[in-house]
TrEMBL record:
Pfam families: ABC_tran (PF00005), OB_MalK (PF17912). GO terms for cellular component: ATP-binding cassette (ABC) transporter complex, substrate-binding subunit-containing. It comes from Virgibacillus salarius. This is ABC transporter ATP-binding protein. Keywords: ATP-binding, Nucleotide-binding, Transport.
Length: 353
């Protein structure tokens, strides 16, 4: 089911939790709502669920305006952060519960619940109570219960945040598998950029209730629309160097050191001379080499850390710490002076906000 938010806002007294959100989520896609705590993710999810009514704007499920449709008539399944399983019921009964509420005959309900249990790989746990399950298993039960009525939309509220790192990775893959197996439109709330980048077809990034960008993981990472998006995605974080534009639009001057960076193409005409800019370069896009003659833009290496198959090198440009990911065989060591170079297409110019 296609989901359309048109100018959706939600106010709580004087707090604008969601501010004029416009997004279209395609049928069958897995969309992450991503952003820092308090940016409006849960409020958006609760409006989709029908638990909150938008203060203004229109919410469509397919062609249907659903602003006034109550949660139970929206054909949605929801998984909460704490799973909200019934502790006194067995796994099978938990999964059957939504069908029982609709008075589906017991035999059919049991059959459907077993099918769902099989889909999420918990066939062997049907007689246990939630207290006898691991976090990951409880979550599988919650997902099976959310899917048992074959909803048109699945809503997941920070579903991985209560799991340890290993289980989180496993369940992340499982959610993707189940979503692809069912083809159900799924909306997933997370504050974890890595999780969003790994699982989503599209990421909706928000800040202070406002839309920032809605793109596929690769696109949002490679083409962040502003400084906030660039900083929020990527670990280690993007390097941001304050600069101003020089006369010819092919050079920017670093504010802190006065050094000039040559750009391979001109900065957009919209940017004004002397306007404060940020040159954004991801650590993996920064080429560095030892600068024996001390002529390049760079500085002294503070620390070299091994991260997997590469080294993470931190050095100073003026007072600012800059990070670069370099191959182990680059042989860069603490205390050396290094200079950096840009890849023609792998840097960003932002206006400082
Ligand atoms: P997130 O899920 O991204 O952490 P929320 O949607 O929970 O953010 O909250 C967005 C903003 O709305 C926050 O400033 C929060 O304090 C406020 N807010 C959320 N729910 C309520 C509520 N029920 N009453 C008042 N303010 C709320």
């Amino acid at each position: 089911m296609k989901i359309i938010l048109k100018n959706i806002s939600m106010k709580f007294d004087d707090v604008i939790a969601v501010d004029k959100l416009n997004v279209t989520m395609e049928e069958g896609s897995l969309v992450s709502l991503l952003g820092p705590s308090g940016c409006g993710k849960s409020t958006t999810l609760f409006m989709l669920a029908g638990l909150y009514q938008p203060t203004s704007g229109q919410l469509f499920f397919g062609d249907q305006l659903v602003n006034n449709i109550p949660p139970e008539k929206r054909e949605i399944g929801m998984v909460f952060q704490n799973y909200a399983l019934y502790p006194h019921m067995t796994v099978l009964k938990n999964i059957m519960f939504p069908l029982k509420m609709e008075k589906v005959p017991k035999k059919i309900a049991m059959e459907k619940a077993r099918d769902m249990a099989s889909l999420v790989h918990i066939d062997h746990l049907l007689d246990r109570k939630p207290g006898q399950l691991s976090g990951g298993q409880q979550q599988r039960v919650a997902i099976a219960r959310a899917l048992v009525k074959k909803p048109k939309l699945l809503l997941l509220d920070e579903p991985l945040s209560n799991l340890d790192a290993r289980l989180r990775l496993e369940m992340r893959e499982e959610i993707k598998r189940i979503q692809q197996a069912t083809g159900i439109t799924t909306i997933f709330v997370t504050h974890d950029q890595e999780e969003a980048l790994s699982i989503s077809d599209k990421i909706l990034l928000m800040k202070n209730g406002r839309f920032q960008q809605f793109s596929g993981p690769q696109d949002i990472y490679d083409h962040p629309k502003n400084e906030f998006v660039a900083q929020f995605l990527g670990n280690p974080p993007i390097n941001l160097l304050p600069a101003t534009l020089s006369g010819d639009r092919y050079t920017v001057q670093l504010t802190e050191t006065g050094e000039v960076i040559q750009l391979p193409y001109p900065v957009s005409k919209e940017v004004k001379l002397n306007e404060l800019l940020l040159v954004g370069i991801r650590p993996e896009d920064l080429y560095i080499e030892v600068d024996e003659n001390k002529q390049g833009i760079g500085g002294k290496v503070l620390i070299v850390e091994r991260i997997g198959r590469d080294n993470l090198v931190s050095f100073l440009i003026g007072e600012r710490k800059v990070r670069a990911i370099v191959p182990l065989d680059a042989s860069i060591t603490q205390g050396q002076r290094v200079k950096f170079g840009l890849h023609p297409n792998r840097f960003h110019i932002f206006r400082e906000t």
